[in-house]
Specification:
single chain; mainly alpha; Preprotein translocase SecY subunit; 2 domains; three-stranded antiparallel sheet; two-stranded antiparallel sheet; 5 strands; globular; Protein translocase subunit SecY; transport
């Protein structure tokens, strides 16, 4: 505890880090307040904002990811998800459209162009989702007076407010990324999920006749799942690398072998994206079929979801990792894998290795995705069961680790002890580990 307090003091001593943390917390507070500013004319009391009542439905899942903005009918109801959908579409277009591929290869200028197109696509997606959200969700619950439902001016106004709210959320996330600590878009989602956690635990406690022992066991199981998720998310296969002799000052010099070099390949290279892909597709049958037949805790929903996640994990890993490019970069820098010829043979070796690693990674993601249903079948309440896996758990673990790593970097650069000293968290890169391939 004493060391933890000292680490907090060290964080506060670093002026740049202190300013970034203050900016991050301030912008997160603005976002959280915005989740409770209701659309004009909407009676939010008629909406189901209680997570324990809506947890077993798809709207409960969307409410969890939006921090309650979706179920509160706030102007931030659409949240960050349209921007994430637009980003995914742009990534897919980068595989098939030569013009997008060209922008991706143009460096910083290309990245700015892609960001601008992503924002435009986000506005289009919001313009489609906003009327559907108002009519199919808010209006169906009787939260909108009849005179407003028949008013074209009110509809146009509300759609514009929702689109503006989604773009405001994107702006907040980008400001956190540029001026604060961590990935702003991911942080906003994570904070929204964490904001619902106390409510879920409280609902679980009051629903138990003798809550102490069951709640304790559930929390222990939850912590064990979080620990396993951290280990897999941080899991890396280290491929040993050597460097050929280099010529300097007219004589040959051997590459520096004082610290062994490694090419790190993550077990879970695709991150949370396969689950997001799969859940986006599963939204269609959930809305078409009855909840008792195809609910988010049902057998068929989770079986199809698990299969889709395995497929999308291989698909997204193929997008993220290019063995040929990695092999070319290694050859250009004079690096090689012992026993493997540089060039095509190295590319084939890396491709085979990635394929073997992706299988257990995809199975793990599928298990994480269906764990909420398993927890619910084991007797955990619907609200608390949503935290036992799925997108919410992976996002929380990934974002928290990424944020801690950034804070760790600031502390180590200022010659302070890091937050993760003595641990195996990937915030401390070993001397021989190389990246960027």
């Amino acid at each position: 505890m004493k060391k933890f307090i000292q680490n907090i003091k060290n964080i506060w001593k670093v002026e740049e880090l202190r300013k970034r943390l203050v900016i991050t917390l301030s912008l997160i507070l603005v976002y959280r307040i915005g989740c409770y500013i209701v659309l004009p004319g909407v009676d939010s009391s008629k909406l189901t904002s209680d997570l324990s009542e809506s947890a077993g439905t798809f709207e409960g899942l969307l409410g969890l990811l939006s921090g309650g903005g979706f179920t509160n009918a706030s102007f931030l109801a659409l949240g960050i998800m349209p921007y994430i959908s637009a980003s995914i579409i742009m990534q897919l277009l980068g595989m098939a459209v030569p013009a997008v591929q060209k922008m991706q290869s143009e460096g910083e200028s290309g990245r700015k162009k892609i960001n601008n197109y992503t924002r435009i696509l986000t506005i289009i997606i919001c313009a489609v989702q906003a009327p559907t959200y108002i009519g199919a969700y808010v209006g169906s619950k009787g939260a909108i007076p009849a005179e407003l439902m028949s008013s074209p001016i009110w509809w146009v106004q509300s759609v514009m407010v929702l689109v503006g709210g989604a773009m405001f959320a994107v702006w907040l996330g980008e400001r956190i990324t540029d001026k604060g600590v961590g990935n702003g878009i991911s942080l906003l989602i994570t904070v929204g999920i964490l904001a619902r956690f106390p409510q879920a635990v409280f609902a679980e406690a009051i629903d138990k006749e003798s809550p102490a022992i069951p709640i304790l066991l559930e929390i222990v199981c939850f912590m064990a799942i979080v620990l396993a998720t951290v280990l897999i998310v941080q899991g890396v296969r280290k491929v040993p690398m050597n460097y050929a002799k280099r010529v300097a000052s007219g004589r040959a010099e051997a590459g520096d072998q004082s610290a062994r070099s490694y090419l790190p390949i993550k077990v879970n290279a695709s991150g949370v994206m396969p689950i997001i892909f799969a859940q986006a597709i599963m939204a269609v049958p959930v809305m078409v079929f009855d909840a008792s037949t195809f609910g988010i805790f049902g057998f068929w929903y989770n079986l199809v979801l698990a299969v889709l996640i395995v497929v999308f994990t291989y698909f997204y890993t193929a997008i993220m990792i290019n063995p040929k490019k990695m092999a070319d970069d290694m050859k250009r820098s004079g690096g090689f894998i012992p026993g493997i010829r540089p060039g095509e043979e190295t590319a084939n070796y890396i491709d085979a290795l990635v394929s073997r690693i992706t299988l257990p990674g995809s199975i793990f993601l599928a298990l994480i995705a269906v764990l909420p249903a398993v927890a619910y079948m084991a007797g955990v309440g619907q609200a608390f069961a949503l935290f036992f896996g799925g997108t919410s758990l992976l996002i929380m673990v990934g974002v928290v680790l990424d944020t801690l790593q950034q804070i760790e970097t600031y502390l180590l650069n200022r010659h302070y002890d890091g937050l993760m000293e003595g641990t195996k968290i990937r915030g401390r890169r070993t001397a021989g580990e190389v990246s960027g391939f």
